[in-house]
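Bumping with the actual sequence this time:
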Amino acid sequence: MSVTYDFSGKVALVTGAASGMGYATAKAFAEAGAAVMLSDINETALNAVVEEIKAADGKAAGFACDVADEAQVAALVKQTVETFGSLDIAFNNAGIQVPACDAAEETAEDFDKVNAINLRGVWACQKHELQQMREQGAGVIVNCSSTGGLVGLARLAAYHASKHGVIGLTKSAALEYAPRGIRINAVCPGAIDTPMVSDMLKKGALTEEMIAAAQPIGRLGKAEEVAKAVLWLSSPDSSFLVGHAMAVDGGFTAH
């Protein structure tokens, strides 16, 4: 049986929405009836996705935003409310990877770059989303961490630090805001078939053999599979989940 959701009358915000997991999740929310504000730093790709959703009779708008800039994030949330009237659900998905590197050789520039987007970006999004949601007295936030937030892998210290930090942000804020009617959880994808992973495969930082060995399911995950997890976490069906970090990883963390 295929599970379907009805988000009619709800407003969802998705960052990193021009490709990969953000793209799949924005489409899934729109197909489930939500009005969706899509955000991405790539304005051209973003506009194309917005038009794709509208062409399929979905409700969507786009706002180009660099989540590393808090002022832009604040403007994004403001525009979402001005466009659709509220903010009910947020998927803070925007993230980047930096090249694998010996921990003793990693540059401060790379550390700051990956944490500015993956950690401070999620912090800024969550902060301004909460300001709106607490006025409404309700809302759901799903932050995108990674299996890299649950375990460590060699040569990826800065990236894993950022993703561990996302889980810390999620848990702390979840405890604070659950009594106010706002649920916050995190999703932790494994190796998913996205442009980021494709780039890692091209550069040799990841191989099909490594994926098959690490993920017992023996394949890359699909962006749509992560989207389904996000929709479930955003739905009333997960109403008792608070501060949870859900692995969507083909069994990687079950080792």
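The tokens above came from a reply further down the thread. The first helix runs from residue 20 to 31.
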